[in-house]
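ugh ok fine here u go
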Amino acid sequence: MPTALVTDSTAYLSPDRVAEHGIGVVPLHVVVGGTEHREGVDIGSAEVADALRAFRPVSTSRPSPQAFLEVYRQLAEGGADAIVSVHISADMSSTIGSAQLAAQQSPVPVTVVDSRTMGMAMGYAVLAGAQAAAGGASAEEVAALVAARCEASTVVFYVDTLEHLRRGGRIGKASALLGSALAIKPILGLSDGAIVPLERVRTSSKAIARLEELAVAAAGGAEGADRVEVDVAVHHLDSSDRAEKLAERLRSRIDHLGELEVVELGAVVGAHVGPGTLAVAVCPRVGG
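structure:
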């Protein structure tokens, strides 16, 4: 029987892909104005962006262990004899703790993987794991592949303001930029699962141009047949035009692309980074 894959809603996988690969998805929760919602189920990006612009209180919370256990049981009943459960970095959310608690009660063995990342950097790894599982890979092999792809990935992003990260407590080492936040446009990245400052520039146009350069560099440059094929996702929150233009420039500059797509950030990550955010996830196809 196959190994099944589970992730959470911050992978931002499309419903079609989830259905195609039989992936279980556990939604994180978003609280807007005191009302709790499930990401991707009863709240979307637009509602969160509107709430942030209106300065309404927005916070996030992890799913319960019971929510994970229900998904694990459904997959076991569907024929899975093992599960690999892959989740947003523990430095950004306590979601993985719920998964670990549920794994102890699961009717089949569950390997919980801390992706140390988020978004499609995690999503592409989960998809690779699901494809490997469909080909007969063991749970141990699937978990190793997922971990390798996550570790090899690079996430860089630009935010219009650091205020949302500060309010949500996710700012990490980027707090060093707060004193000059009004005078700069910060470029941030993920390092071992935590948000870190990379560079500071003076205008949004320069920040986006620099984001492009960092993404191309992370992909291994623009030319070379020996380079590893990469999947790239351009994430955004309420900034689709800028995201589409950035994606087209990356398409023309990276010649060893696997997939390249524009994926809007969901409510949970969006609540912490704010409207206008652009991010690029560069994910080499390693470990297979």
